[in-house]
Amino acid sequence: MAGLYINQHVLNNLFYILVTVFAFSFIYDHSPAIQRKPLYNRALLSACLALASVLCMKFPIYIDPTCIHDFRQIPFLLGTLYGGSIVGAVLFVVSMLARTVLYGFQPLTAIVYIIMFVAAAAASPLFRRLPRSGKLFTAIWLTFLLAVLTTFVAIIIADFPVTKPYIVYFILMPPFVMMFAVYLMETLHEAQLARAELMKMEKMEIVSQLAASISHEIRNPLTVVKGFIQLLQTGPLPRETEERYIRIALEEVKRAEAIIHDYLTFAKPAPKETEPIDVAVELHKVLQMIAPMAHMHSVDLSSSLEHAVVTGNVQYFQQCFLNLFKNSIEAMPNGGTLRVAAENRETSVVITISDNGIGMTKEQVRRFGEPYFSTKEKGTGLGAMVAVKIIEQMGGTWKIESAVQKGTTMTITLPARRVRPPSTQQSAAG
After folding, report:
1. Is the Cβ–Cβ distance between 330 and 376 less than 8 Å?
2. Which of 40, 164, 181, 182 could form a disulfide with 139 if both were Cys (CB 3.0 to 4.6 A apart)?
3. What are phi and psi of 412, to 5 degrees?
4. Residue 72 · residue 81 · CB < 8 Å
């Protein structure tokens, strides 16, 4: 029997209410000005729910040939509860004007809506402070009690006939429609808050990642400086050797200063100058930088470097391979051999980095280069991330082959510069 009362007109009224609620949420979510100014917020809420009220009156629910009804009280109560007395007053005026234009003025209607306005406006401050469950409970019972109260007022004032369809459409059904509308309003509002919180967390994550990245990048040159200072402390060294160690240490301090400068200007990055890079020369320099660390880990360095020229930033190039060499050395806690090869293939330069360390699983290989993913207990994964990004910025590609407890080989392919340097072979050993 109840299904007979849920007809097309009821569904149309429900549709008007839900569409205007969605419209309010959509406009609010995409308009920072409305979010910042409560007056604009109330104006938007009034406009959307006033439209719903007018549409409900224009296309009403026909109870019988002498009586029609609609759900205009739902957007009226919804707006008053969420927007307060100001929004309620606007909706009251719009409803009365629309009622007069469409069907003529009816004093009883004005009295009924004045009662609803007073009750809803009084409940609004408490309603807005309630959690979602409290709002749903309040909306259901307030709508039901107001329907009963205004029905008694109508009976007393105008000897209003109360029929079974009237009880269904005006007393029983509106509380559930109101509950659904409030639930939708709360769900959309919570989604907006969750999205705002997510954006805030993403910003904090960027700050955290930037801080960790700075720490990681600074640690590399400091490790080199520490290694050469420790070598200077081992005992008397030839003057030439001491000067070379000091020179390399000072270069790494300058590198640390440059890294700090780059990150401080991160918000307004200047385009980095590119220049021809002799792969053999720069890789040899990086191997010299990493030699103290390799010595401390009992790792031998072996290289076979063909001269080839690529285009990029020298500092970034060195930083990239410093990170990769450091990762390979740390992957050999019990010692081993780090092999570095550079091969000139006319249109490309292939650089191979091999170690016989602990290796990686397929999942670890797949996630190589992701921030905050590392096979090391205290690693951040940012060194590999920076290296991969630099390779990609130079137009290169990379591939990893690895087996657990057998070692890892990383193959990097960079586009060669058109000018071909002389082909000579250079070797560097730790």
Report:
1. yes
2. 182
3. -115, 130
4. no
